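tokens incoming
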């Protein structure tokens, strides 16, 4: 529908519980599936004031998120994760597809994960001090460290 993207980095980032206050808990349903409805208020100002999380009661998959501006009764943005588009892992359920709807703008954006690795084995070699020091594009860090040490 739109050439503008309705997704922000904030929509995809991992949220920290210490940045919110729980202001409501209830039971509801999403497409007939029982869910825990948890309403959180942001403690720090941002693009939204509060958010409703609709979490599946049986496996804690995130099925829907609604974002609200201060004082508004209706959400301005809704994020949906369809149960049929979920990938199951040993300790979690993650969506392969996320649909974002900006109700104010009347636009929709869809993100599809074509490849995902959960808990991959990562070598620590790329993050060693020696490895980082040899990267020329990080030379400003060495200069700053040398200047800071003087």
């Amino acid at each position: 529908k739109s050439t503008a993207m309705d997704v922000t980095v904030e929509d995809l980032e991992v949220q920290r519980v210490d940045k919110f206050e729980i202001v409501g808990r209830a039971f509801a349903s999403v497409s007939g599936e029982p869910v825990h409805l948890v309403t959180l208020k942001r403690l720090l100002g941002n693009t939204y004031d509060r958010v409703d999380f609709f979490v599946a009661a049986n496996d804690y998959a995130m099925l829907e998120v609604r974002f609200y501006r201060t004082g508004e009764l209706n959400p301005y943005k809704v994020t949906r994760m369809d149960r049929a588009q979920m990938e199951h892992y040993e300790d979690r359920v993650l969506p392969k597809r996320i649909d974002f709807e900006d109700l104010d703008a009347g636009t929709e954006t869809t993100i599809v994960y074509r490849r995902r690795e959960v808990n991959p084995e990562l070598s620590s070699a790329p993050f060693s001090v020696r490895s980082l020091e040899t990267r020329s594009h990080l030379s400003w860090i060495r200069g700053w460290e040398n200047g800071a040490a003087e």
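note: The radius of gyration is 20 Å.
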